[in-house]
Structure formats: structure tokens, C-alpha cells
Amino acid sequence: TPEQLFPRIEIEETENKEPAKQNKKDAKKGEKKSAQKTEKSDEDNSEISFEDFSKIHLRVVKVLDAEPVPNTEKLLRLTVDLGGEKREIVSGIAKHYAPNDLIGKNVVMVINLKPAKIRGIVSHGMVLAASNGNDMELITSDLPIGSEVK
Question: Cα–Cα distance between 111 and 146 in angstroms, integer?
């Protein structure tokens, strides 16, 4: 039988409760949510099938331009060349890279990621980086633009 995640709350019950009791209940809800987040992060380490992985298209791209995204400390707007096609990407690497240091670099990018609007800018992909928590390094390549990463 399915396990009940949240207790059923009747609307009349909620309206009649004292504010102090509501605050205690809200605190308990916060504890449950943080416990669920912990469980979810454990699930993120689950295995995927080869078929799922093969859906990801990785290519070598050249960074043509890089600039900070206004009113943010972490984001850079990158213009990249896929080999005949230019795209804009928003990446959270500004604390680790100066925009001018990126121009001309060949980096690895997920090219078939669904576009996402980040701070009003549509990002058409994602550059890959390795991180140990403190340091971050983009995955680079000396292969020609458009080379497939397998």
C-alpha cells in the first residue's frame, strides 16, 4: 500500500487553529521538506542506462565571446561556434573564469539540451566543467570545432 507523505488537512481545522499551533506545524513541514531534499540528492546518484546516456550529444565548440550577465556574480553569457552554427549559453562560471580568458578556448558542450531562459537570456546548451567544490575547470579539447565527444 502507498505510504502517506503528508497528513490530510481539513480547511475548517486550519481556520480554527491558533497561530502558535500553525507555526509549529509549519516548522515540522520545513523539517520534512529538508529530509525529502536529502533523499532526492541520494537519488541523483542513481545509475542511468546506456540508452539514456546516448541521448546526450556532446561536441567541441569554440568560445567566440564572453561577457558578465548584469546583476549577477556567477553568470557569464557565452557565444560559441559549433562549426557553422553560433549559439548563446548562460553558464555559472564567472567566479572561476574572467570573460577574456575564455575567448578562443575549445570547450565541451551539451548541444541538445532543451533551451532554458536564465535571467532573461535564452541559453541553448551547457558547457561542461569539473569541480571539487572549491575549484572549477572547464572540459577543454584540442580537437577541431564540431568534434563529437563519445
Answer: 10
Residue 25 has a CB neighbour count (10 Å cut-off) of 14
Are the C-beta atoms of 115 and 147 separated by less than 8 Å?
no
DSSP state of 2: P
Q: Is this prediction's pTM over 0.85?
A: no
C-alpha closest to that of 145 among 20, 71, 59: 59
Can you tell me the distance from the alpha carbon of 134 to that of 137, in angstroms, rounded to the nearest whole number?
10
Specify the pLDDT at position 37. 53
CB 76 within 8 A of CB 94: yes
What sign does the CA torsion over 109, 111, 113, 119 have? positive
Sign of the four-CA dihedral 17, 20, 23, 27: negative
Per-residue pLDDT tens for 53-100? Answer: 888 899 999 999 999 999 999 999 999 999 989 999 999 999 999 999
Average pLDDT of the chain is 82
**Three-state secondary structure call for residue 1:** coil
Asked if 108 and 58 count as a contact pair (C-beta separation under 8 A), the reply is: yes
The pLDDT value given to residue 8: 67
